[in-house]
Amino acid sequence: MPYKAIKEIGEFRLIGKISEIAEPTLEAVPDLINGIGDDCAVYKVSDTLLQVATTDILVDQIHFDLLTTPIKHLGSKAISVNVSDICAMNALPRYALISLAIPPSFTVEMIEELYRGMQHAALHYGIAIAGGDTSSSRSGLVISVSMVGEVHPDRVTLRKGAEPGDLVCVTGALGGAAAGLRLLMREKEIMLEHIENNEPYNRNVMADLQEYREAIKRQLLPLARLETVRFLEAQGVRPSAMIDISDGLSSDLQHICSQSGTGALIHENRIPIHAETRLIADELQQDALTWALTGGEDYELLFTIPKNCSGLIEHSRDISIIGEITEAEAGISITDIYGMTIDLTAIKGFDHFQT
Amino acid sequence: MPYKAIKEIGEFRLIGKISEIAEPTLEAVPDLINGIGDDCAVYKVSDTLLQVATTDILVDQIHFDLLTTPIKHLGSKAISVNVSDICAMNALPRYALISLAIPPSFTVEMIEELYRGMQHAALHYGIAIAGGDTSSSRSGLVISVSMVGEVHPDRVTLRKGAEPGDLVCVTGALGGAAAGLRLLMREKEIMLEHIENNEPYNRNVMADLQEYREAIKRQLLPLARLETVRFLEAQGVRPSAMIDISDGLSSDLQHICSQSGTGALIHENRIPIHAETRLIADELQQDALTWALTGGEDYELLFTIPKNCSGLIEHSRDISIIGEITEAEAGISITDIYGMTIDLTAIKGFDHFQT
Description:
The structure is a homodimer.
Chain A: H1 6-22, E1 32-34, E2 41-46, E3 49-59, H2 71-87, E4 92-102, H3 108-125, E5 128-136, E6 142-151, E7 167-171, H4 176-196, H5 213-220, H6 226-235, E8 241-244, H7 249-260, E9 262-267, H8 275-283, H9 288-295, E10 301-305, H10 310-313, E11 319-327, E12 332-335, E13 341-343
Parallel strand pairs in A: 4-5, 9-12
Antiparallel strand pairs in A: 1-2, 2-3, 3-6, 4-6, 7-10, 7-11, 8-10, 9-11, 12-13
C-alpha cells in the first residue's frame, strides 16, 4: 500500500482531503453556513446574528522560539492571530478558549506570564478568556487558542465573493514581520556562537535593535486589525471578500481568487512596505518585496471592495489600494516597477509541511 | 526570585491561578454566564438559547500511545471527550473545530484515518466538523478539539447547584477505561520485550483480548452520554449539578461539592462496576474500586437531582443512585462494604502534572 509523506502534497491539499472527510458531517447542522476553507467557520444563531469560530495552534520550534520570544509576548500573539481570523470575516471577537500542553521544564511563573500576555491582549480587543484545558507535554510548549466572534448576516465577509472590477485593498504595511524574524534569528545565532565559544554574550556584543523596533514588534507582538472592521462598518462598506495575511500576500490573494473564481492584477509600486523593512532587507541582503509577498505573519487584512466604494476608504491612512480583481482567465499577476507582468502563482507563501 | 515547578502546586491550583489572571477579561463580555472552572464556558445568545464551549488537548505519550491505539479510534475519542464536556452542561453538541500538530513521520493516510474516526463520531453525535488548523510538529502528534453546544437557559446545568439532600447519580459503569488501559499497557510491554529479544510478536504470543473487549473499548472508544441528556429532558428532570467523569469519581465528586459548597456521602456497594472490570482487576492483582474512584477517562456523567425526582429516573438501567449530597461540614466520604466511612478527599484522581 503506497504511503504518501505530507510534504509531498503540502498543507493546502492536505486541508482539501480533510474537508472531503468532514463534508458529510455538515448536513447534521443546517444552521452551519460555512465550514472548512475560510478563516472561520460561520453558523447562524438567529435572523440577526451569525457566529464565527476559529482555532490556531502554536507549536514550539515551529511557530515560536522561546530563545527570542518573551513569553508574555507569545501569549499576546496567540490571542492576536485568532482575533485576526475573526476580523477576516468582518466579525467582532467575543470569547476565547485556551489549551496548553506544558513541558516539564516550565514553571508556574512562566505560565502566569504567558497568561498575563493573553490577558493584556484580551483586554485590548474586548474578549473574554472563558475556558480552556491544561495538560503536560513530553516535548515543547503547545498553545491552542479557539475563538468565537459575532457578526450581523448583512456584514459577514467570506473569501469568496470578489468580482472582476473590484479593488484589491490591504491594511498597514507588509513584510515587517518577516524582517523582524530574520533579525531575531541573526541575533540568536550570534548568541549561540558566543555561548559555544565560551565568550560572554551581553549588552556589549548584542546588536542595538532599537532602530528596528517596529519590525521586531511586528514579529513578536502583531496586532489584529479590529479597528479596520469597525472603520469599514462606520463607512458603510462591506468588503466583497476578505482574508487575513498569515501566509503572505501572494498566497492569501490566491486564496481569495480561487474561492471567488477570479483572477487579480496587483502592482508592486502600490504594495505598502515600511521604510524600516527596506532598510533591514538591505542590511541582510534580502528582498523586501519577497518578504511582503511570501513572508507571512503580517496579520494585515487583504480585502476587495466594489469600485464605487473607493471614495469611502481613500481617506484612511491604513488602507492601500494595490490592484484590481480580473476575470479568472487573466490569471493572478503582479506588475513590477518596470511594467513587467509576473505570474504570482509561481510565488508561494508559507507551507508548514514544505519548509 | 523563587520559581515553582508546576507539579509542586498541581493541575487544579494552576487552573486557579490561570482563572485569576483571566478574571478581568470577563467584564468585557456581559453575555458570558460562566467562565473557567466548569466543563464548558456558558454564554447567552438569546433569551431562549445559551451556548456552551469547551476545548480538550490530547498529546502523544500523555493521553495516548500510538503503539496501542488505532489512529481511527483516537480520532473518534478526541470528538467523544469533547461531546462529554458538552453533555456535562446538559447541552447538545453542534460544531467542532480541530487543530492538529503533525509530526514528520506521519503520512497523509494516517491523517485521513484520524479524520475518518472523527467523522464517524461526528455523524454519531450529529455534530459538524466545521473548521480547524494544521501545523507540523517537531515531536509527537497533538490534537486539540474545540466544540460549541446549545442548551435552553432553563436546562443548563453547572457544577455548582447541588443541595444537601440531593441524590448523587452516575451513568453506566466505572473503572472500565482504567482496566482497559492496564491491559493495553501490559500487552505493549510484552510486545516490546519480544522485539527486544528478537522474538516474533504475532497472533501465537498475543494475549486473547477478546474476552476483555468491553474494557478495551471503554479505553479506546469511549462514548459520551448524549442519550442521558436526552433522557433527562424527556423525563423532565433537570439535574441540580453535573460533571463528566474524566479524572475519576472521587475527584469529580469533589469538584461538584467544592463548587456547590456541600459535602457528599456515597456508598461503595452502589458504585456500578462492570463484572469484566472486576475480573481484570483480579487478574492484574489490582483493585477495581480504586479504578472506579480514581482511574478516570470513563466519560460517564455524575449528577445530582432533588430527592423527589428519583421516581423519574429509577427505571433507567443506565443510571445508578450512589449516595446523597450533605452539608459541607459532613465532608465528602464513602462508606465501604463493611460500613466504615472513609474520607474521599484523601483519594486523588488524575493530575497531569503529578504523575
